[in-house]
Amino acid sequence: MKPHLEDVYRRLLEAYGPQNWWPGQSPFEVLVGAVLVQNTSWKNVHKAIANLREADLLEPRALFAVPAEELEELIRPAGYYRVKARRLRNLLEFVVQRYNGSLEAMFQTPLHQLRQELLSVHGIGPETADSILLYAGNLPTFVVDTYTYRVFSRHGWAAFDATYDDLKEEFESGLPADPALYNEYHALLVRVGNQHCRKTPRCQGCPLAPLLPRGGPLEP
DNA sequence: GCCCAGGTGGGTA
DNA sequence: TACCCACATGGG
Q1: Which of A25, A99, A105, A193 is the most exposed, having the fewest neighbouring CB atoms within 10 Å of its CB?
Q2: Could you report the per-residue pLDDT of A3-46, keeping only the tens digit for each?
Q3: What is the pLDDT of residues A127-157, one digit of tens each?
Q4: Strand, helix or coil at A3?
């Protein structure tokens, strides 16, 4: 039996409290972070962002003007620095050329259209695109990630072969289109995933454990 | 030393 | 479609 999405959310929020992801930062800083954090811990990304801030480069045109090799060195602590420098520059080129370097202008674009545009940038996949839309643009698009998939499939609430878009649709059709809710929900799923999903014995003390099917977590 | 982290794109069958 | 792989630094 599938619990209501609100019930899962309530349990996580009661257990952990608000996660306050990406608080007090500029939308551009969030956008940069969304690329740098790909398959990487936030701690590493923070060092890279600090380098960019130190160099006064947290602005689209300024950062795009930085030579590729220099950008690589600045973001090196975030890992995959050559790939990410390329991806970041692709995104900056898009923002500068399509929106004249204005994120404010960019986020005026209708959500679905902008999402498609972001996905067409090489190196921007669904999670990065949705993170930018939600956390930088405050637009109501749900961010799915490996933890969302892991938590929901192991509880039997999603098929093991569910796609990104399957899960995204599941959340968006089952919840009010509220950016603040999507923001917190995603952050809480990452939190519970980090804290419990790869520990053994699994699910000990997990706030979602009471919702597990009999026999414990499912495996593919 | 080993495993993993808030993914994405390319290659092969 | 379904896998498999490269990409890289830093923390537990």
Answers
A1: A105
A2: 789 999 999 999 999 998 887 689 999 999 999 999 999 999 99
A3: 999 999 999 999 999 999 999 999 999 899 9
A4: coil
d(CA A83, CA A80): 6
How many helices and strands, by DSSP H and E, does chain A display?
12, 0
Spacing of A192 CA from C10 C1' in Å: 22
**Nucleotide B12 C1' to residue A79 CA (A):** 27
E strand intervals along chain A: none
What is this structure's pTM?
Answer: 0.96
What is d(CA A176, CA A44) in angstroms, rounded to the nearest whole number? 34
A129 belongs to a structural domain: yes
Q: Pick from A195, A194, A197: which is nearest to A212 by CA?
A: A197
**Co-location of A70 and A170 in the same domain:** no
Contact A73, A49 (CB under 8 A): no
Any strand C atom closer than 7 Å to A194 CB? no
Say yes or no: A164 and A92 in one domain.
Answer: no
The residue type of A210 is: P
Residues in A 28-67 whose C-beta is less than 7 A from nucleic strand C are: 39-41, 43-44, 47
Which domain CATH number covers A132? 1.10.340.30
- Cβ contact A42 with chain B strand, < 7 A: yes
* Residues (43-62, chain A) with CB within 7 Å of strand B atoms: 44
The gap between A8 CA and B10 C1' (Å) is: 37
